[in-house]
Design goal:
The complex is a heterodimer of chains A (about 400) and B (about 400).
Chain A (H helix, E strand, L loop, with lengths): L11 H17 L2 H4 L18 H15 L11 E2 L20 E5 L16 E2 L13 E5 L7 H6 L2 H5 L18 E2 L17 E2 L11 H12 L33 H12 L11 H12 L2 H4 L4 E2 L12 E2 L7 E3 L17 E3 L28 H6 L6 H8 L3 H11 L3
Antiparallel strand pairs in A: 1-3, 2-4, 5-6, 7-8, 9-10
Chain B lengths: L7 H13 L22 H4 L5 E16 L2 E19 L4 E10 L4 E14 L2 E9 L4 H4 L13 H7 L4 E12 L5 E9 L5 H4 L22 E11 L2 E11 L4 E2 L2 E2 L5 E13 L2 E12 L12 E13 L11 E12 L8 E14 L2 E13 L5 E14 L1
Antiparallel strand pairs in B: 1-2, 1-18, 2-3, 3-4, 4-5, 5-6, 6-7, 7-8, 8-9, 9-12, 10-11, 12-13, 13-14, 14-15, 15-16, 16-17, 17-18
Classes of the chains: A alpha+beta (about 400), B mainly beta (about 400).
Chain lengths: ~400, ~400
Amino acid sequence: MHHRHRAGVVHPRRAALAVALAVAVAASGCDLLTTEAPDPGEVFDGPVDGLTAAELAAFVRGDREFGRPFAPSEGLGPIFNNVSCAACHSADGRGRIENALTRFSIGLDPALELGGPQIQDKAIPGAEAERLPAGVQVSVRLPPPVFGVGLIEAIPEATILALTDSLDTDGDGISGRPNWVTPPDFVPADEPGGGPEPRLGRFSRKAQVASILHQVAGAYHQDMGITSDFLPVENRNPLASRATEAADRVADPEIPAGTVRAVVNYVRLLAPPAPGADSPPRRQGAALFGSLGCARCHVPVLQTGPNPVAALANQPVRLYSDLLLHDMGDGLADNRPDGSASGSEWRTAPLWGLRLMRRFLNGDAFLLHDGRARSIEEAILLHGGEAQTARDGFAALGPDARAAVLDFVGSR
Amino acid sequence: MVRLRRAVPALALLAAGLAARGAAQDTTRAPRPFVEGGVFDKPYLSRLLGRTAIGGYAEAHARWERADGATEEAGFLLRRWNIFTATQVSDFVRIAAELEFEEGGEEITVEYAAIDVGIHPALTVRAGMLLSPLGRFNLSHDSPRNEFTDRPLVSTELLGVALSEPGLGVLGLVGLGGATRLTYELYAVNGFDDGLISDAAEGTRVALGRRNVEDNNSSPALVGRAAWSPRVGYEVGVSSHHGAYNVYRSEGVAVDERRDLTIWVVDAEARVAGVRVVGEAAAATIDVPPGLRGIYASRQRGLYVEALRPFGRAWVRTMPGSFFAAGARLDVVDFDADIPGDVVRRVTVGLNFRPTQDTVLKLNFVRGRTTDRFNNPSDQAGLLFSVATYF
């Protein structure tokens, strides 16, 4: 506003003009006023390029559901681990150690009568949370990133199976085994990863899940205590008295199939972030990544096949994983088999998005299946089993070469 | 607060109020009100002719809000439309009520309806649906008095302003010589209910435990405020609300452990070089059920500070009582004091024009940042324009 003498007179029209001017100036102050959209390559929650308007509309709807927290009066629990997908998968990336899940079983027996295969350590008022029983095999699982799972799903089974070397016929000490998974009944046969026959497991830490639908409906049911048309019966704490189940006040199913489908589509369409810029030391790091044998498991790029979503069809997937199981030695073993994965086998963790890991974990780093490694270097040094040779090769590098490998891995 | 399904009871009250007009007693605004802008300091009271007065206020917004580069809202709303009535029943007894129609009439609540029996300036008994004396803003939150379009975040998001509860208690004023005085209010009220956990999806939200109209747990809560003021325009107040919010006894049987909610609020007002500075800081501690610890907060806090400088009195020739005011406000609410994230911060700058004291046009620019429980930030900005007036 202009300053004027007391004696002067502001005509209402002039005052209105001044206000309009202030608005206009503010409006042209762009970012300060409009806020800034993050660069699409710098986030974990952006859509893949080239989606149709209808696919984007579905993406937006699923995004809302992914972020939606449930209150106890909206169906949360009675026993559960967290209130929303986004509460575990930070900004659609990985989670923190505080958000990790605890699975347990007795050998291959999921120990349902003890509350297995997953501990729900939270409960709504009136219900009893589960506690870990003694004498069971325990597996702590850090939430992995959820971006890029549509690309992972779109890679033909044959492409992944071509990388297997179960009997290590090439003698490099690296085998790579598929986890064959029998899809649950609620996954329709025409759904990717569905059908009566065992299918290639691709998702979760031991690749024990073959379809995104299985993963998502299971997450609602097990992680949040939200029943759906796919899994309509509430998960219960078998060690608590039946009476406590009345704490849940919402009729089942608590969400319709459409909500689960919306979230399946959402994660399916999530793009991985862009890798960092190229540089000479980085190229040296990439070369060492290959020569040390890292790339035998962390396969830099796989190709998708035909797909009903045009944007996912025939695309390079720069995930740095073969999506197969590898024996990682006793140090990393949880000694808890999962499907056909043994107690020491883990799916090769994709390395995409490591560049932005700390940004979405409040500056921290949590790596490996249980988040025990607090830096990329520590994660590499904890490799064993089939990766022992590669790990030792890395450990033997001089400081510059080591830094180059770390820089390369940390730039993906 | 009572939710009324239809507007009929509201209209009946209005009609009853009108019918009661015309009798003797004149109620005028006190020269120095008990709470400035409080229940008995409204402009409609100074125009009172008969025994009962009817007045109110209304507030309408135009909002343009953005978050992380996308438009979240661009629209208009009739935020609220409230009616007040007050009756001086006798020299010692008065009754006042406020009905609030929010969001286009979808929600109608009895925000205030209480009987005062004045025994002595230092002792009045008050009973009914009370405005809880929890922070100065809750006692004086009418839109035409609020200098910014939105209420302070600590008030709406943490304390749940407007907070009114059925209760019974006392209030009074003690002169301490000169203009200095001490005022107090102390009530037993129904308190909050466990909606603050059970209906809260995003973690503990005290505001969702309001509206405990039919007491849930037969365990009254206490709420009180004491304020010391050396002269007009300067005041410091301390208030607290304490009580059990869950049902821990039912038909004489212990059915749960007792869980308490305790809130402390400090408020202050002062004038510095022609600038009116007002602020409030609140802290809440909540006993969280064992199964929800770690994801539902047990400690929350927040504050707001605002500064306002009036200028340009009678600049507008045709409106001799008119003036402008420029102001700024800082809002911070930490929804979980035990983790780094889950915080809302906001800065508001505003320009107001008041054609008369009782009507205000507000133009605000707001810029804010919220963080989720992982401490991931999200940025907000907005241009808000609103009109509010007493009638």
